[in-house]
């Protein structure tokens, strides 16, 4: 995956699009930090099609957290109340 500084991506946007079509996802960086990814629309559709929406997950009748480990209660330290 090629990395494009934001100024280069802006100046050569057509080339960025062509590289995305030919080579796949392209990363855009700002001040050396990865900021965004440009990917072909087919890949975007594939990634988003198999994922349910947040609304669907929240309204689903089955729970999705029954098997998550819960922290033990009562093990934390209590703060002493200040003397005023």
Short description:
The chain is α+β, with helices and mostly antiparallel strands and 84 residues long. 38% of the residues lie in helices and 17% in strands.
Low-pLDDT stretches:
none
Instruction: Name the overall outline.
Output: flat
Give the helices and strands as they follow along the chain.
EHHEEHH
Strand proportion, as a percent range, falls in: 15-25%
What's the gyration radius in Å?
23 Å
Characterize the biggest β-sheet: 3 strands, mixed
Oligomer: single chain
Distance between the termini: 61 Å
Which bin fits the share of residues in helices?
25-40%
Number of strands: 3
- The SS-based structural class is alpha+beta
Strand order of the largest sheet: 1-2-3
Quickly count the helices: 4
What is the averaged pLDDT score? 87
Task: Describe this protein's structure.
38% of the residues lie in helices and 17% in strands. The protein contains 4 helices and 3 strands, in the order βααββαα. Strand 2 (26-30) and strand 3 form a beta hairpin.
